[in-house]
Methyl-accepting transducer domain-containing protein (Mobilitalea sibirica), 520 residues
Amino acid sequence: MLIYKRGAFAMFRKTGKRSNKEDFGFYQEIENIKIITNQLLQGDLDIEVNANEFTLLGELAQDVSFISGSFNEYINEVSHVLSHLSAGNMAVTLNKDINYQGDFLPIRSALHKIKQSLNKSFEKILKLSNQMDILSDQMEKASSVLANNASNQADLISSLSNTVYEITEQTVNNAENAKLAAIGMEAIKKETKTGRVYMDQMLTSMENVKNSSKDISHIIDIIKEIAGQTKLLALNAAIEAARAGESGKGFSVVANEVNILAVKSEEAVEKTISLINNSIHTTQESTEIASKTADSLISIQSSIEKTTHLCKEIAERSENQAQSLKDTSAIITNISEVVQNNAAYAQENSAEACNLHDISSQLRSVLSGYRLKSQIKNYPQRREMEKEKILLWIEQFKNQLQGINNSTAEIDRVLIDIVRQKDEIECVYVIGDNGKQLSHTIMHPNIQLEDNEDFHPAIPGDNHDDKKYFRQAVKDKDRIHFSHEYISSATGGLCRTISCTYKVNGQDSNILCIDMVINI
């Protein structure tokens, strides 16, 4: 500025002597330039310089206007890009029509590099997130299957352990029973030996009976012979008595009695012989049976000895088997504990896999709020269509407001109806042409405000005359103005302010301001 001023003073001196009127015009133009530069210093870049109003400093005024316009473009561009990046739109593009010059070129380069770097980083993060999502899903399924299998294995091993325990108990019982059987067989063996001794004694006795029967037969033969001789003698006596006549009658009676006795003796002998023969026959049969029984006892004794030996072997092997089963049961118990621990670990892994899947889902949800260059297609065309749609809405809203009085309550009533019509609206409010807010700031009911203690919605009476959206609407009342995109202090999302004027009662003008949510 000083250079231009010095140049202007130098140019003014070169022209020679000037009139007081020219001096006044020169200093007046300098004051106007100072007013414009003060606006720039205060951050108001929305200025217009009419070069025709400057006759002496027209070139300087044009340069100031150019600087203001360039700064305005630079700031809007930087705000636009940073706001989109902050809102997660990594696909935001730089305006090719803005000509960065001199020391502003590194700003454009830095913005481009930041955008490219963030886009690449988030693309990698998104790719890793998708891979992690797939892996976590696979891990969750595998862990679930592993947990189920481990649980089933634990149940099977527990059942097997119970079965082995029961078999062990049965084997122990079998061993005990085999021992008892062996003891019983030993007792039977002893009894069999005793029975065999008795049987041998019985055979000996029966042999003695047989021998005695032979002796008795011999004696009976003698008795039979004696009976025959006695009978013969009785016959001879009877003959002799008959010869003697009367004198021999007594002897005849005796002879007859002797004969009768001899007959009876012979009959008794025959019966005795028959009985002895039967006894001998029975004794022979008994001897044969006893002999066979003795042979059977020998066989039984041999079988009992073998059975006793087998019972002892069964008892011994059952004891060994029982011990092996106990060892197996202990091993199965250890395996069961390991499997149960594995099942517990598998369940924990399954739970961790679920947590990982939840974290992956949360990460995917967070990343879904970001838009990468590869994901966004036809973005400029969509934005243009949205802008045309918004212009139609604004005209409808203006018509709703033009037919009411200018009271806060009445304006609020209409604004509440307006804000409910469109989900894209963050808030809406009305400002008077003096810069004072007339309505309350009506927030959309679905808007969730950030936990920001510094944010307070504007209320009636708040001043907006330093706001660009207000100044633009006042300067150009026939247009609908769209601000640059920025981060909302209310929600932290990307939005822009749309402002326009509408007539009240055909005279005064109010400014309708709508903060629109921008979906990237």
In short: The two ends are 42 Å apart (CA to CA). The first strand starts at residue 425 and ends at 432. The beta strands are 425-432, 442-443, 481-482, 486-487, 494-504, 508-517. The chain has two domains: 132-365, 377-520.
